[in-house]
From TrEMBL:
Keywords attached to this entry: Cytoplasm, Methyltransferase, rRNA processing, S-adenosyl-L-methionine, Transferase
Organism of provenance: Pseudomonas parafulva
Protein name (Swiss-Prot/TrEMBL): Ribosomal RNA large subunit methyltransferase G
Pfam family of the protein (one): MTS
Gene transcribed to yield this protein: rlmG
Enzymatic class: transferase
Family assignment from sequence similarity: Belongs to the methyltransferase superfamily. RlmG family.
Domain Methyltransferase small stretches: 201-371
Domain of life: Bacteria
Summary of the function given for this chain in its UniProt record: Specifically methylates the guanine in position 1835 (m2G1835) of 23S rRNA.
């Protein structure tokens, strides 16, 4: 794989999660553009630079030791990638502080480098939070590949930060530079809330939660078919989002032990708050993790999963396949994985390669609910 070469460093970088013969690289032209632009400004060694949404640590690892750099984002995998890529390039794995998107920063910052996220609600929330954390004369520089840069990104920068200047295109990437100007402190529209009738729940959703305005249709198809009467079973909601599957399962299985896992810090924050609102002080393990990578083998009886079909802008079933593998490792013999998926994704045949029995529990014109037994 090619090296990321910038005025700050030359780095050998990997993506997370790792896969053999990965055709995708851990940086792109927008990362290169952000770094070369920052270099023209010759920041002092004591300049405080905040980096937002650095997918695999390309920006933070390049600037480590050059400025006072802090990285922040909503992806646990991005945090793992930063640590691995720092170590891979001979730097202490923890030399760049990482602040989850669910936690607060400590400004002021002289520069902020932003990779424009797929979810513009996350960008809006981050820009609102930046108010009060920018030093006089600070700049917020947002970068993206042009095909992934919506006009609304510039509008948000203008609304919350200050006047925006768009760069010329460079290798199909573009930068938007907002110069800090005092703005009235904005009230965040996040988290959002919506209600369910069955089960009767009000669900809170922080900015980067999938389908934060209402229940997604896959989960809607899944909810009536969740397993019940499982006694003291150990149940995991894998890729839990706002926690709706895990909470609904806990209501159906009052003696069961539940684990809710997601790689999004905002999803985990939402799930924790929703669990407490619905179930009070009932215990659960709700954590940010690389799927079930941190789960002991054969420690679960049931796994529930509505798997994703993309990682950032990349669409595919790689993450779903990996989640199925993790579920198989974590389940006891005789345990079961329940999933919902689009019919056209062909999950039945994929699961049959890993599990000894796969059956269709339910179907709609668009979705199937499958049970795979180990």
């Amino acid at each position: 794989m090619p090296l990321l070469t910038s005025p700050f460093a030359e780095l050998d970088l990997i993506r997370q999660p790792e896969q053999n013969n990965d055709p995708l690289q851990a940086f792109d032209a927008a990362d290169e553009y952000l770094l070369s632009h920052l270099a023209t400004q010759a920041p002092a060694a004591d300049a405080r630079v905040l980096i937002l949404n650095d997918s695999f640590g390309a920006l933070a690892a390049s600037l480590a030791g050059q400025v006072q750099v802090i990285s922040s984002g909503d992806s646990h995998l991005a945090h793992l990638a930063l640590e691995k890529n720092l170590a891979r390039n001979g730097k202490p794995f923890d030399c760049v502080p990482f602040v989850p998107a669910s936690a607060a920063w400590q400004g002021p910052f002289d520069r902020v480098l932003v990779r424009v996220p797929k979810t513009l609600a996350l960008l809006e929330e981050q820009l609102i939070r930046l108010q009060g954390h920018l030093a006089p004369g600070a700049e917020v520089i947002a970068g993206a590949m042009i095909k992934h840069l919506p006009r609304a990104a510039g509008d948000l920068l203008e609304r919350y930060i200050g006047p925006v200047q768009a760069s010329l295109a460079q290798k199909k990437a573009r930068l938007l530079t907002a110069t800090f100007a005092e703005r009235p402190q904005a009230a965040s529209p996040y988290p959002t809330r919506y209600r369910l009738d069955s089960p009767a729940l009000e669900l809170l959703n922080h900015a980067n939660v999938f389908c934060r305005e209402g229940l997604d249709i896959g989960t809607r198809a899944f909810l009536p078919h969740l397993p019940r009467d499982l006694g003291q079973a150990r149940i995991a909601d894998l890729g839990c989002g706002n926690g709706v599957l895990g909470i609904a399962s806990a209501l159906l299985n009052p003696q069961a032990q539940h684990t809710l896992v997601d790689e999004s810090y905002m999803a985990v924050q939402s799930a924790r708050e929703n669990w407490q609102a619905a179930l009070g002080e009932r215990l659960a393990d709700i954590r940010a993790d690389d799927g079930l990578a941190g789960q002991d083998k054969q420690s679960l009886d049931v796994v529930l999963c509505n798997p994703p079909f993309h990682q950032q802008q990349v669409v595919g079933d790689f993450l779903a396949w990996r989640m199925f593998q993790q579920a198989r490792e974590a389940l006891v013999v005789g345990g079961a994985l329940y999933i919902v998926g689009n019919r056209h994704l062909g999950y039945h045949s994929k699961l049959a390669r890993l599990f000894r029995g796969v059956e269709q529990v339910a179907a709609t014109p668009k979705f199937v609910v499958l049970k795979a037994r180990k």
